[in-house]
Amino acid sequence: MTVIDIYNIQAEKISQMEINEGLFEESVRNDVLHQVVVSQLANKRSGNASSKTRAEVNASGKKLYKQKGTGNARVGNEGAQHRVGGGVAFGPRPREYSVKVSKKIKKAALRMALTDKLHSNHLIVIDDFNLPEIKTSKFVEVMNRFKVSKALIVTDGKNETLEKSSKNIPWVKVIRHEGLNAYDILNHDHLFLVKSTIKKIEEALIS
Prior knowledge:
This protein has about 210 residues and is of the alpha/beta class. The protein has helices spanning about 20-25, 30-45, 105-120, 135-145, 160-165, 180-185, 195-205; strands spanning about 1-5, 15-20, 125, 150-155, 170-175, 190-195. A 6-stranded mixed β-sheet has the order 2-1-3-6-4-5. The model has no long low-confidence stretch (mean pLDDT about 95).
């Protein structure tokens, strides 16, 4: 078993706990992490950009003037692609960008991301993150005590005081343990886990 230190919001070490090695001892593979991160980013894309083709624009289908005898170039109707207000040739159409990755690979990537944070000493387990009041300055004080900048904080449930106090801090993200994912872990320099979330994460990832 691996032993990890537990801190309070004063950045003081208050105890230690044993954690399951299966959760934090996964061999890190960049190809697996890359596959999962690409999938997550692709799945965020809406793919609903759309333009009207020549057949879809609201324009008359009548030829604007006769083919010959006017001295002008040959012309089609108002919906032609080269005319203002005409259709778009080869424009964007609704499409699906999602990339499927198996649950097994997702779980493995999440364990790898957790392992990376532990071995790089960027994982901080905190006893609880209960702030006395909703105040951004109080939250910043806690972050300054730990000397961290870009951080991901994982809670075991709704924590309105923490969520509202950190809302205006662009370099901090607060999520609940159900939403923990490899991309957010890798995208932040430090990872804070509330102590009570570790057991729930173990149950979700080790089976």
